[in-house]
Amino acid sequence: MREVAIVAFAQTVHTGHDTGLTEAEMLHPVIDEVQRATGLTRFGFTCSGSCDYLAGAPFSFVSALDALGAWPPISESHVEMDAAFALYEAWVRLQHGDIDSALVYGFGKSSMSDLREIMTLQLDPYYLAPLGLDQVSYAALQAAALGGDRADHRGALDEIVRRSRADGRANPHALDLPDPSGTDDEVAPLRPYDIAPITDGAAAVVLAAGDLARELAATPAYIRGIAHRIEPHYLGMRDLARSPSAADAARAAGVGKGPVDVAELHVQFSHEELILREALELPEDTVINPSGGPLAANPVMATGLIRIGEAARRILDGGARRAVAHASSGPCLQHNLVTVLESALESVPESAPETQEGADRG
Amino acid sequence: MPSEAPSGAPSGARAVPEPLEARHVLEFPGGYTRTTGPVIGRFLTELRDRRIVGVRTAGARVLVPPLEYDPATGEAVTGEYVEVGPAGTVQSWAWVNTPRAGHPLDRPFAWATIKLDGADTSLVHAVDAGGPKAMRPGLRVRPRWRAEPSGHITDIECFVPEVTVMAAPVRAEYRVRPGRALTRFLEGVRDGVFVGGRCARCDQVYVPYRISCPACGSVIEEEREVADTGTVETFAINNLPDPRAPEVPFVSAYILLDGADIPMLGLVGGVPAHEVRQGMRVRAVWVPPEERTMSMTNIRWFAPTGEPDADLPGGAAGGGA
Known about the structure:
With 362 residues, chain A is α/β, with parallel strands linked by helices.
């Protein structure tokens, strides 16, 4: 497996409202920032993640190419998913060995329509979408399957939101949201504050392989494991209280092969953190979502990529040695991508990236 | 044309224009045409005939709604369709207080995963249950069908709970007479006094008046008037309206009238409910003499006398031989 690292990450100052910029205008500064950080203006591969339904415009992701300068023609791809999955595609592309760099970005303006009902459109068109099952409703079904309105469950959710919002207030890119309060339900058992806020924003990551990674960053955040797994789409075919696909992806990515300093989890509803902690078997001392996570800023289609970027940033800063990032797609954590990032690759043989090495480091 | 300056704008400042904004609708008028394939098509065809079917997998599980492939193995399902339900059991549920325009019901309802009888998986649908208190895991529900099914998942309007309770009408009318002892007591109440009876054998004075002693069974021969003052032995604050009470909350109390050995039930009024206490001294408040009848309504309630609280014998309520 070829060693690939994250060498740069940038994100917008996310907003809870439409600032009046187009998607491309919103995206341009973060592309500019990672280009300046790496000194690269051309990349071996470019891959983005976005959702045309957010803007209601077919092929709106093509317009976003204006933000990077795609002439002469570039090698480019797109996923109609969170850009974390675009990063996975770019990682696969870098495994081919013929290129050394990739640009990954994602963007979303969920302020333009009703996100809860836009997310109905991702459901199967035969059995679920015609019911008008909206995003909060299906998330509430999962929260109910997990613990409903039991007092201990509610207390755990409140604490997750309180911690996430406090961390978000300390993150200049996240929204300033108050401590959770109020007992009204949005869709019981979920309360309004259990739900990630409507957010506009964008993010970009640069991947580099081999020598280029060491040239571009002092402490590159090496991707030591990355894997995604998926479950049946139809909610009634699954045990909603568990996420076996996240657990499988975590095992395949090697989460348990070493300590985890930081985990950035794609938690769009507070109860998802409980499910994901269990699925990823995260150690008790792992710091969860120090950025505040999606409960503090959820620029849809960039949120998962930001998890990888935030986890990488801790390693690029030297603040963490080993970090885990999780990204999700589909209803009720249907599809999960887990990335393990590590610093200081020097002692690891190139041919065997997934070793017990991580367990020996603090 | 520049828009008009908002009122209060500093003179000479440029008007802040309203942000340009356009309404944009993405829609497939009449809906997007989709082919169903044989498996989903069979399900929707049966649904149009008000039947719910699942499909059997090679592992003999019944998937409802049917899928083309077994999600556990990826194998194609068998061609065997199995009628299930129509009743089923709620697995878990979420309550919608404010329905959206696209929701199946326009009043509060539950989303639920429902395991139909004979199925091995759950169907996601709405339950019209009235209120969240009616919902619970294990609730038995049945479909409510649309008047004219068309082969669509919404041919089931929603599910409704099975019948588990019904109202059984009961009504009979009686003519009730108070009996000799109570008649005697009510005569006293008409005249503004409480009449008790003393058991000579037990040396206990019972109020209201009785003709025999409930402790020893002796005939009570001695009438004894007791005071209309007494002491609150114990009480309850009632928050449910009662036609006999003046307001909510009201206090009903066991009051040990001076000279009696057994407390009598009465209302306490003329004092905030939270100030009523055991040992409080009270006096009956009578309606004016011209309004009195042979009824306990002659006593509006018992009101505090303002005397110091009395010690309750033994610290506990209750007379007793």
